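Re: beginner question about structure tokens

> Can someone show what the tokenized structure looks like for a real chain? I only ever see the sequence side.

Sure, here's an example I had lying around. Input first:
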Amino acid sequence: KQWYQRRVRGVLNYYTNYYYKSNLSMTDKIDDQVGKLSIVEGETHDDLCTTLVLHGEDHTLGNVLRHMLIKNPEVEFAGYSVPHPSENKINLRIQTYETPCLSVMYRALDDITSVCDHVLEQIDGAEKLWKEPKVEGS
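And the corresponding structure tokens:
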């Protein structure tokens, strides 16, 4: 449980802090890998449709992020792929109607953080109930 908490919060905090510190925009030129996030070379840097590369990640974050993106009504398409099993990265394709891709991605990361916090609170509450002394005859 503690490993899960550290892993989820560490990954989500990294991306959230990176975004807010850098205020990255699709119109910015990204030459190479910038931390854990980069844009696929050759992409037209359109705010509404792009492919991002998340380095050091796998299906664990990819599938959850895709799911949260798909639930957003502003997102037209979201999908991810792992280019090769030996490569530790995912390609995340996002297409939106009007909102910039990075904006919806970071909103999805915030939503994931909220869901994880809720699940951890529920687990802690259930654990406290389980550890309470049982009263005989009730």
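Each token stands for a local structural state, so reading them left to right follows the chain. The longest strand covers residues 89-96.
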